[in-house]
Fold these 4 entries.
Entry 1:
Amino acid sequence: MSKVVKFGGSSLADAEQFKKVADIIHADPERVYVVPSAPGKRFKDDTKVTDLLYQCYERTITGEDFAKAFAPVRERYDEIIKDLNLDISLDDEFVKIGQDFRNGANRDYAASRGEYLNGILLANYLGYEFVDAAKGIFFDHKGNFDADITNACLGAILEKTPKAVIPGFYGALPDGTIKTFSRGGSDFTGSVVAKAVGASLYENWTDVSGFLVADPRIVENPAGIEVITYSELRELSYMGAGVLHEDAIFPVRSANIPINIKNTNAPEDAGTLIVPTADNDTKYLITGIAGKKDFSVISIEKDRMNSEKGFMRRMLQVLENHEVFPEHMPTGIDTVSVVVNTKELGKGEEREKLVRRLKDVLRPDHFEIIDGLALIAVVGRGMRAKKGTATRVFAALSHADINIRMIDQGSSELNIIVGIDEKDFEKAIKVIYDMFILSEQ
Ligand code: ADP
Ligand code: ASP
Ligand code: MG
């Protein structure tokens, strides 16, 4: 049986972290497929190599000399090589990257070099084989991840490679051009590799001891989650719980492979186990709280809206034509509020065009767009079995004098979503946490 182990940026930020990673890998002979991220932050205000690479790309396309723009990236790798005493040089790779930049390589290519170079170093350090993700992870000509081809090709390569390092975050388009997943995408690569090799477990090593009930940057020392289902995790990661990329569960879910989130800096901690199904009899009524800012509400009022044939269809059509995709759509008899990502509304003229089109097509009595909305999801399989979750969420918010602008509960009873003013975001998460976790401890 093999395990796939993915290490995030902070787990591989410098030589000290590389040593911890090697100790973890060598402690279990089943840890044979390793997916690294690019070196992340070494301290709070440090810059991740991926961000350095994006900066380097912007600087070179505006005419700056590559060597100068690339110097901060180069330093990071050279320092790791020196501190680990590795018998390897990346100089030829740096030259090749410079040539590729000059030949017009794209922004994704630039970003992908973070994982690529780190993969080469880690493979060398572990004595594992380096397998370039561009050789086994593929996108179709539209730029969508191609699960079938990837699974077949990567599976075939790794079948012949008993111990390999496969860099995270990128793959190749049919013509060989490099393309990355969205930010945090190495989690997705780990999941893809786990499926391709039929792993018994996908271990995702990061800088926290598993999934916590709330974001530790908001709630001080939050309780940990021992077991969480794929569906709960999906809700939480979609709503901004940053631990795992929101798509990372799909490949392993289809293959029934559990994910274990573990802490590189505290490897003995059990972490969080992510499983297909679990008992509803949970320790706390809720499993987790997460949230995101930067939403807007398009609020539309029109008398007898609900009896006007095709009203919703026409509204959705206009939104779709403008590439605006509703997140939530609570309705009243004569009102509808459409919650969307603010950035999808565009700015200036683009936004005005959308507003004009909606008004022309719908002829509302009242129309308004309110920006500055934050959404908070309270998620838990346990709430199906017990009553009163919503009441307690509302009570917590109302005691804290937080105005609720929107409420939505999925029919699966797995989550309750509330929309509040952005300025109340952190406070809202804290009071909900206190209500469900602190008061039960
Ligand atoms: P990596 O670089 O290892 O991929 P990430 O930074 O992507 O790590 O994810 C781990 C971070 O996610 C934690 O350091 C923490 O700040 C943040 N985070 C946000 N929400 C949660 C949560 N609910 N539980 C644990 N960590 C969370
Ligand atoms: N290095 C990439 C990022 O910073 C991918 C990852 O870390 O998963 O987004
Ligand atoms: Mg991450």
Entry 2:
Amino acid sequence: MLIIGERINTSRKAMAPAVAARDADFIRAEAKAQVEAGATLIDVNCGTFMAEEPELLAWLVETVQGAVEVPVCLDSPNPAALENALPRHKGRAMINSITAEKERWEKVLPLVLTYNTRVIALTMDDRGMPETAEERLKVAARLVENLVREGVKEDDIFIDPLVRPVSTGNQYAMVVYETIRRVREEFPRVHTVCGLSNVSFGLPARKLINQAFLVQTMAAGLDAVILDPLDKRLMSLLYAGELLLGRDEYAAGYLSAFREGKLEA
Ligand code: THG
């Protein structure tokens, strides 16, 4: 399981002032804590800063990579911000994200190819976010076929079925499970990813819903996830879930998480 730590995001109350003040110590501490807790990539998102985003995204990439040895997931729809930050990234970055929207596709694809990145592809196009799994699968198929035709390896593609709050539609989690299953059936070498926390917007005790959602998306075949790795219960469920899915031979990952004090029963 690829674990993408979501905490360096200026939509979080604690993060915006730290980024505004270029508080590198704060960013380094957030990056280290997430990697220590199991993150295998660090997501960075400073989209709330608008005009300053290109400069800040590059600064975040350098600051994070000055503290930890993992790749960064550049979370921005803004091609200018991606273009400014990518040359400063060491090793292979992940772009979060491309879509089938014409303009975004045309501007982000060259960056994926030039910088040989991994890429998250959201199942949306110029008509918006499809309601049904069937329609999301069609958009996913178009994205995969077009990316592969352009030379992107299937192993570098992460389809994100886009999570909507269950408080706004009672089938929205089900649509995600179904899309994950269908993508895995049709494109077994392509990965699937989602951000967990959108599912619980507008409801109390959100962590509980996010935890149940992690387990159910994993059972559907999710193999990468954007989450807060400092939620110890969530990470515990991830280790237990990997074991139960037969992805953790001899329970090695589960046992070492236990020995490191990372499991909360
Ligand atoms: N898919 C992809 N990328 C994504 C998402 C996705 N990037 C952004 C988002 N969704 C995932 N990242 C976060 C980061 C932080 C929070 C939620 C998702 C978060 N939110 C608190 C809240 O909503 O209440 C903020 C609380 C605070 O102010 O600290 O922490 O789906 N590809």
Entry 3:
Amino acid sequence: MTKDIPVVGRLAPSPTGLLHLGNAWAFLLAWLACRAQKGRLILRIEDIDPQRSRPEFVSAILDDLRWLGLDWDEGPDRGGAHGPYVQSKRLAEYALALDRLAQLGYLYPCFCTRKELKSLANAPHLEDTGPVYPGTCRNLSDELRRKRIAQGQRYTLRLACPEMAVDFDDAICGPQHLQPCDWGGDFALRRSDGVVSYQLAVALDDAAMGVTQVVRGRDILFSTPKQILLLRLLGKSVPAQYAHIPLLLNAEGERLAKRHQSLTLAALRTRGVRPERLIGFLSSLAGLNPGAQAIKPLELVPAFSFSKLPQVDVCLPDTMLYSF
Ligand code: GLU
């Protein structure tokens, strides 16, 4: 990454549950990547899913991040020049972008009912990827569209993806050259009940907040071309660096997720686990602390490099997972 561009990173938790070990891993690495480049960090709360987001998780997440020893320069608790830092307060911006995409001719109403649309406000993790959208509603006549809308049929708004590849150079996964068929084809930007998609909200916020560095789980890699495409169509700046980190998996090869209750940071804290010990454990898995000694995030900054991270997902045997 060019040395003269100031780095702006972000931590983007969704308040849909308490933070767990997998989140701690991802946020630690995103924090280190940014601080190692003397970057500024933004904390953004991604709460556009009204069914799953709960306000009480916001303060719990902030407490957990602080407990881990992670800090940020702008966020809902600190303010800053790019607020609001809570997505549910940025809905007007998303609506404007949808209008712009419609004016440019990239949006069409889609009357297909698909199960996956329910979760469109959430980042699609691996288990959520579905088949390529076959384009059923893309070429309906205007007359038919008007008729169906007048009949009261519900519709989502979908982006008509231009037939072009999106290229980016991932700091961990290397050069990517992805076509619409790789990311599922035309994708939904707004649900029939008005809820906007994760893809739209994240892309717009990264641009509006001046984010230059996006560090997140490897399972979200296929969202990146969608977000870059949206930003290009809207003439907005694209983050200069993407890094999709390996995932932490349990012994069955499942991504650590919110359903593994005993691994919430709150549960570990209640059991008396010290944050330095947890950071020591996570940083050893990341190749940054071979002896796994207890350590604070700040002490790891000089050691950080993307090249030290494992190239494949990290599978944790139960003995290790429940060793705390
Ligand atoms: N809020 C998203 C999640 O928790 C973050 C995805 C991203 O970093 O773009 O999965």
Entry 4:
Amino acid sequence: MKYIIVTGGVMSGLGKGITAASIGRILKNKGFNITAIKIDPYINIDAGTMNPYQHGEVFVLKDGAEVDLDLGNYERFLDIELTCDHNITTGKVYLSVIEKERRGDYLGKTVQIIPHITNEIKERIRRVAKKSGADICIIEVGGTVGDIESMPFLESMRQMHSEEKEEDIAFVHVTLVPLDTQGEQKTKPTQHSVKELRSLGLQPDAIVVRCKEPLLADTKSKVALFCDVPVSAVISAHDAQDIYNVPTLMEQEGLSDYLMQKLKLTPKEASHEWDELMGKMASINREICVAVVGKYAHLEDSYISINEALKHAGIECGCRVKIDWLDAETFEKNPDAVNMLKKYSGILVPGGFGVRGTEGKILAIKYVREHNIPYLGLCLGMQLAVIEFSRNVVGLKDANSSELANTDHPVIDLLPEQENIRSMGGTMRLGNCEAVLTEGSLASKLYGDNHLIERHRHRYEVNPKYILQIEAKGMRFTGRNDHRMEIAEIPDHKFFFSSQFHPEFRSRPGKPSPPFLAFVKAALD
Ligand code: GLN
């Protein structure tokens, strides 16, 4: 097993996750099997209980793990499926060490950060890497070097460095070269962050430098000199047009050759899939504009997988999908504002929790249903479509979800198995579940099959008591898992498709998600 450890310096938000995923991709393009691990030094067991407004989207894996959005980047860039073990947090590490202590596994010993916590970290990494069967395991250490929380993880990396053979482990440090007021590239922050890294006993093999414009030769030499790496190991990671251009950029900078040399790897059979994708992206010559009506309208990171899934579908159709992020509360304050929706080629309502903005989303859904504008509803976006239809077509004026209000007509209600659950972490209906599709439905056409598997994250569902009443008025539940409604569509509409699951999580560049592809096609029409 070869390990590539990616650390970050200077500040957060430099795109360490994209860098780690891109490093994986350029090596995958050389024929290697890649897996990836994200270390998040926070105390939370997982991202499931965190606010997407602060931490970005909660990504859901096939096994139901609720994880950091970077795992989504790994899955998309590397076209792999990961599990909960690929996201290591301080919470998980301490929880298992404390459980072992209570069980008596360390009997007689004082349990300490070194060696017990660091051993637990290393064991987890090695176990996951081995189980994956990959040739190379990329490990991204979240946070910025110098943070108190990441210390035990960086110490574990230091120990791994001395335990593994020199050719089996490489360190890549991601930093920033800012411009001064005269527009000159400044290397001091990078020098300082490498100094900090060295004080922990770690020396980077390569430095990936984020910057606005390509790094000048002089700047590269300076970084190389002060940070003690060859000039060829200083990689200019200047702003790219799109995140999917980053691997190509790193390849051009020579990073895969450098890493293969360091890790004594000879390339296997090259794959050209990524180049083909780049070719398709370069030939895009049309643009459509869709609106996402959400709660965190000014924070794209909260809906990153939706953004990517729309992009994947767009690439397939040869068009750029421009997204306007609309705040649902605007429509609550001013219901006439929904008229602005007519300028969009399609409207998407994403998943969400809590009542804020839901009445605004319902107004938006009413507008698109009545004006035959393509609609894609995801999870809460399906539940609200059912509520809107029940209120305005079926005639149940106070129809609502029991998550959102006390009502006589809870057309969306708690899943029966959720009734006695009080604890919040990891307790929803999560991960891969199957749905059986109605023959001849839009759903079965999109998936080209009579069943599907998609990822879930919800506590509420369509209340089975109302199904006949709703279907009698023209909304159809064309995907089902036993008594659970997985898909709601309106056959009379130009394109009205909504799902209880989140198809965005399984979308990949080059393999767009079927509902997203059909939505973009309908929008193009
Ligand atoms: N809040 C809704 C539920 O729990 C929808 C969840 C979602 O959109 N992910 O069922």
